[in-house]
Design brief:
alpha+beta, Jelly Rolls, five-stranded antiparallel sheet, 12 strands
Length: 196
């Protein structure tokens, strides 16, 4: 019986780690009233109708122009520049689970459409409505490679995005390769001793 493919498959599964994160924008330095998200921020590409100027980060301690509670937690929050479309993809092109976020309208009640794609095909969509108070949106968009929010011309404030990524860890990958090499060496020695 050959165990090589079975061992390789098991080691490949071990070589991936799940990274669950809540993105709250607290590590973005807001100078004056707002800031653009850095390229590949938190491992994602943040774009949309205004290219890399679609997602704006402001702080509750600056004059953002929004009234009421502007951040769900901490002091920073993101918002849709000009009410334009927001686009989120993984920087490495991989899949992720978009589980939810906290949102509110920028200047009144809003409704927006959330679309999620896998390999260019829309697999989820959801209509969301908000007033000027933060409330949690639960999406459950699993194994997608792109999420798009159509704010339909209204500013949308966003905070605490829940995302899960499955990524290969370099240390696990090295361990897997080392294990595969050791298994191959042992198998070769056994065949040599058996005269095969």
């Amino acid at each position: 019986m050959r165990f090589g493919p079975l061992i390789f498959s098991a080691l490949t599964l071990v070589a991936h780690a799940v990274q669950a994160k809540t993105i709250g924008f607290e590590d973005v330095a807001v100078v004056s009233s707002s800031a653009l998200l850095p390229p590949d921020y938190q491992g994602f590409v943040w774009s949309g109708a205004y290219s890399d100027q679609s997602w704006i980060v402001s702080s509750s301690t600056s004059n953002s122009g929004f009234s009421g509670t502007v951040a769900h937690s901490g002091s920073n929050f993101a918002w849709s520049n000009g009410g334009g479309e927001l686009d989120l993809t993984a920087a490495d092109g991989g899949d992720f689970d978009f589980l939810g976020m906290w949102a509110r309208g920028g200047a009144g009640d809003i409704h927006f459409l959330a679309h999620a794609y896998r390999n260019g095909v829309e697999v989820y969509d959801q209509l969301v409505q908000h007033d000027m108070d933060y409330s949690q949106d639960t999406f459950g968009f699993l194994d997608v490679d792109r999420v798009v929010f159509d704010a339909q011309g209204a500013n949308m404030l966003i905070d605490d995005i829940d995302i899960v990524r499955t990524v290969a860890e370099p240390s696990s990958l090295a361990l897997m390769l080392g294990g595969a090499f050791a298994a191959g060496t042992i198998a070769r020695r056994r065949r040599t001793r058996a005269g095969i």
